Amino acid sequence: MEFLAKILVDDNFVAGNTLTRFLESFKFAPTAIDVLSGGAYTLIEDWPGRPTIGRGFCHSGPMDSLAFRIANALVGNPVGCEGLEITLSGPDLRFLSPAIVSLCGAPFEATLDGNPISMWSRVKVFAGQHLKIGKTTGNGCRAYLAVFGGFSNVAEWFGSKATSPMVGVGGYQGRALASGDLLSITGQIPDVKGDLALPDNLIPKYPNYWELLALPGPYDEGYLTPEGIDMLYETEWKVSHNAARGGIRLIGPKPKFARADGGEGGAHPSNLIEYGYPIGSLNWTGDDPVIFPQDCPDFGGFISSNTIVKADLWKLGQVKSGDKIKYRAVSLEDAISSRKDTERFISEVVECCRNGGKLSDIAPMKDTLPPELKGKSRGNGLVHQIQEKGNQPLASYRQVSSSHLYPNTPLTRL
After folding, report:
1. Distance (Å, rounded) from C-alpha 85 to C-alpha 217?
2. What are 378-386's contacts with CB under 8 Å, separation 24+?
């Protein structure tokens, strides 16, 4: 399409001088990336994704929004601009025009024309150069490639360019990248000079043991026994091989339910009348625990016992099969404080990249965990109830992470 569009505005074509040998003298230099190999699972995502609910498709967006946004900041993009999410093994890309790129996230092999490049830094690529992203070299499993200007031939769908591969929409034809794909990029890149790289002390750590901050709810007390709730936070959960964008299954003990059945929701005590599933929640399909990340179902009828706070959601993009997870119950105040610290860190990185400040002056994200709550001090998912009266039915308001409440009506913001 770009080739044909260039012909239509060529002076010779406009003048009608389109003889048989016209194409021999017609010069066409596409501004694009030629995908030689798509890698294990490379998706186009943008941030915050597609937050519309109730339409039968998932949220989407980057699994690790921290690394994603910093990659965009380093190349000079808005933090939400579309980029490539790379999982376990990366793509092989040939740049047909110059570009500015940055690769952030878990450590990956990466070479430009065979020479290693640094992650968490701005890299200028010239026309004809070959960027090859190999396998992970440590813990974590995802990295993000930001390209200045994004990909102009990827259309928005419901307000986002994010790929929802489980339903085959968004991104590049609703799927992972494959050999032969072509990503159109801008032909106008800024004249950047000097190095721009995140200092080592600001780069996130990627362990294989993750302690994740969590809040109770929406469904814990009254659905699990007190011993069953304690088990959620005392267990070192192992990440199953079934760990993907749609769900991260955990291996551990069976839950202890406080009910004999699900009442109107169904025969099993994990059943409920359908509600909107929160991202980051620990969902129980019968006795099987699964964490719900970006591409989880947005609606269903199984209890979610506790929910990872927003500050720690980026870590779900880096846990992989065999890793260990332990939940740390924290207060709502600590959850909000942690989120503010994460957003403060990202905002300061963005500001430095935009205005030429010193990245070395930025304070790292807090690495000390807030106090862990135990027993009754954890509280529970039920925040408030309005009792049944006359025509007014019983209304329950339940906590969902640090961002909103879940009532028996549409979600209400705090």
Report:
1. 30
2. 378/216, 378/229, 378/233, 378/329, 379/216, 380/216, 380/217, 380/220, 380/221, 381/216, 381/217, 381/218, 381/219, 381/220, 381/221, 381/306, 382/217, 382/221, 382/222, 383/217
The pLDDT, as a whole number, for residue 53 is: 65
**pLDDT-based confidence at residue 1 (cuts at 50, 70, 90):** confident
Give domain limits for the chain: 29-202, 209-363+377-408
Q: What are phi and psi of 13, to 5 degrees?
A: -65, -45
pLDDT tens by residue, 213-229: 999 999 999 999 999 99
Single-letter code of the amino acid located at 78: P
Q: Go through the chain and tell me how many residues it has.
A: 414
Q: Specify the pTM.
A: 0.92
Q: What is the CATH code of the structural domain delimited by 209-363+377-408? A: 2.40.100.10
Roughly how many angstroms between the first and final C-alpha of the chain, as a whole number? 47
Average pLDDT value over all residues in the chain = 92
Closest CA to 224 of 265, 259, 251, 250: 259
Tell me the average pLDDT across 278-282: 93
Residues 325-366 pLDDT 10s:
999 999 999 999 999 999 999 999 999 999 988 999 999 999
